[in-house]
Amino acid sequence: MKYLQSLSALLLAGVTAQGQLFTSGVLNTVIPDGNPNSIESTLSVSGLDLGMSNVVVYVNVSGGYDGDLYSYLNLGGSSGTTVVLLNRIGSSPENPFGSSTAGLGDPTGETYGFSLSDAAATSIHDYEGTGSSFQPDGGTLSSFGGQNPNGDWNLFIANMVSGDGSDPSTLASWGLEIEPVPEPANLALELFVILFSSMAVMRVMRARRRT
């Protein structure tokens, strides 16, 4: 039975669809202080199968104060799905200014390690300068599930607090990892292989017991 379980686990792992990463490249776009009219960056996605099972957002911001930032991700424009990613990190009635940490991820914008993912253990709202993966602040990326991933994905980000502009936040780069829904034909093939292999293993085990 252990052989059977191990074999099934290995084959089922092959059913999991692999995500594809789309990145903006280095942007280094300044996010103006005290301007609720956010800057916008667009990633055009194409060539993917219809439907997606998971989305991970990578974001790199340098400088400024993380507690000043508000950001959301949109697919399909004004009539499309929108998910809030950042909402004044660390802010609360006791701390209206939010977190004083500066920047998220890689300040050069060249690598992609800092992510927003539904699978993370804690919310980005609790970010204190350490860690690399957090849940979005105010929404779930599963809201994009099942939709057509091809098209324009728009990242909006704003600095909601006025300052002297001497140390503004800067959007260094961002990216999306989109995981497609496994194709039914591939899934059926994998399940057939599991069933066939399981029967073969059971025959071998029965033969061993008889000898």
What gross morphology would you assign?
Answer: globular
Number of domains: 2
CATH architecture label of the largest domain: Sandwich
Secondary structure: number of strands: 10
Order of helices and strands: HEEEEEEEEEEH
Radius of gyration, CA atoms, in whole angstroms: 22 Å
Q: Which runs of at least 5 residues are low in confidence (pLDDT < 50)?
A: 1-17, 185-189
Nearest-integer average pLDDT:
85
Strand content: 25-35%
Terminal residue distance: 18 Å
| SS-derived structural category | alpha+beta
Number of helices in the DSSP assignment? 2
- The CATH topology annotation of the largest domain reads as Jelly Rolls
Largest sheet: 6 strands, mixed
CATH class of the largest domain: Mainly Beta
Percent in helix: 10-25%
Identify the CATH homologous superfamily of the largest domain.
Galactose-binding domain-like
Structure description:
The chain is globular, with a radius of gyration of 22 Å. The two termini are 18 Å apart. It folds into two domains: 1-16 and 182-211; 18-181, Galactose-binding domain-like (Jelly Rolls, Sandwich), CATH 2.60.120. By secondary structure, the protein is an alpha+beta fold. The strands form two sheets. Strands 1, 2, 4, 7, 8 and 10 form a six-stranded mixed sheet that branches. It has a four-stranded antiparallel sheet with strand order 3-9-5-6, with no helix packed on it. The protein has helices spanning 2-13, 184-210, and strands spanning 20-23, 29-31, 35-45, 52-62, 69-75, 81-87, 115-116, 133-134, 151-159, 169-180.
